[in-house]
Amino acid sequence: MFRLQRALPERYVDASPDQLATWVAQAKESLAPRLLVLGHHYQRDEVMRFADARGDSFGLSRIAADRRDADYVVFCGVHFMAESADVLTAPHQQVILPDLNAGCSMADMADIDAVEEAWESLATVTDVERVVPVTYMNSAASLKAFVGRHGGAVCTSSNARAVLRWALDPDGTGTAQGEKVLFFPDQHLGRNTGYQLGWGAPDMRVWDPRLDLGGLDDADVKEATLLLWKGHCSVHQRFRPAHVAAFRAEHPGGMVVVHPECAHDVVELADEVGSTDFIIRAVDEAPQGAVIGVGTEIHLVKRLDDEHPGKTVMSLDPLVCPCSTMFRIDAAHLCWVLENLVDGVVVNRITVDPDTARWARLALQRMLDIT
Ligand code: 13P
Ligand code: SF4
Question: How many angstroms separate the CA atoms of 205 and 187, rounded?
């Protein structure tokens, strides 16, 4: 998705880390209490030290919504998170993303045109009234709105199981919303959750949006219970079973915890699988002396290691890259947006149009009602 971030003025580009830290602190002080700075768990430390609240994508949006006194919500995260915050906050609250190019490559793998096309092609083969669309939180507001309009719900990595249960009722309690789910944009979260709920490979098909009918034939579509959009997170997909094997060989008593955006063959080998908040709790609760191999973004892994001196927390992949889009948010961009606010200028505001916001809110509300 194309977004244009203008170049920063030289004052910020040339400043030393200490100067930036001083300016950010001064700007924050003069904007308080109208300002709320939110930091996603994957943010780098030079930004995270200024966050008034840390959290996962959904948790942060809820914090923004609860802080009605915060006229300015500076979201140090990625674009879909700032959009969700705008959907959930009051009209007088302005949500700001310090770098407009901080997107999410996975979220960008499903756009509204491709999802609408998929829906139309599905309708040629099956009754779409019986298909429940479910979108991962990591998606544009337009996709959340699509789901809202078509009777589906949003899910996060911590409540995907509950949302799929609601949609398909595998336990047979008589509350199913439909017979199939179209799950986007992350095939891995969909697949891992499907297996957790007892479905097998024959119940799932990958929907490739670049191919006619998702690359499937009519029988595939009819047979499948879960249609998994062919999207992935390039950070989490890098973890391989060989990384788990190497960690276990080196640390026989160690524990492996991975995010459900990892591929299923990695998840199968892990001791625990869960969202960023779940991973943080797993490390918190591990005994002193524990060695924990983690499959998620490196800034969170390093921070967990720093904050747990008696435990060893390491990435399962020694060569893992950071999330490059999260990494776009740095102290210079944070300082630039804050100093503009001090001057009364709102730069990089993220807004969702009222109609999209209304339907996206409905899809988010369904998720809340389910979980
Ligand atoms: P959370 O919803 O756990 O914050 O995860 C977001 C994300 O981008 C994971 O890669
Ligand atoms: Fe998107 Fe993956 Fe980065 Fe999360 S880690 S923001 S899913 S690209």
Answer: 10
Residue of 106, 186, 239, 299 with the most ligand 2 atoms within 8 Å of its CB, for mutation: 106
Q: Is 61 in the pocket of ligand 1 (CB under 6 A)?
A: no
CA 93 to chain centre: 22
Tokens of 78: 């990625």
What lies within 8 Å, CB to CB, of 196 at 6+ separation is 161
Q: Ligand 1 within 6 A of 154 CB?
A: no
> Residues 6 or more apart from 135 whose CB is under 8 A from it?
110, 143, 144, 146, 147, 152, 154, 155, 183, 184, 185, 363
Other beta carbons within 10 angstroms of residue 332's beta carbon come to 21
Residues 6+ apart with CB under 8 A from 116: 146
Residue 2 has what pLDDT? 58
Least trusted range by pLDDT, from 113-122, 223-232, 315-324? 315-324
SS in 3 state form for 142-175? HHHHHHHHCCCEEECCCCHHHHHHHHHCCCCCCC
Average pLDDT over residues 133-147: 98
SS3 category, 347: coil
Cβ(57) – ligand 1 distance below 6 Å: yes
Per the CB < 8 A criterion, the answer to whether 325 and 102 are in contact is yes
Q: Round the CA-based radius of gyration of the chain to a whole number and report it.
A: 21
Rounded to the nearest 5°, which phi and psi values hold at 49? -65, -20
* C-alpha distance from residue 343 to each of 16, 148, 266, 326, 339 (Å): 22, 38, 49, 26, 6
The answer to whether the CB of 43 is under 6 A from ligand 1 is no
Residue-wise pLDDT tens digits, 168-211: 998 888 879 999 999 999 999 999 999 999 999 999 999 999 99
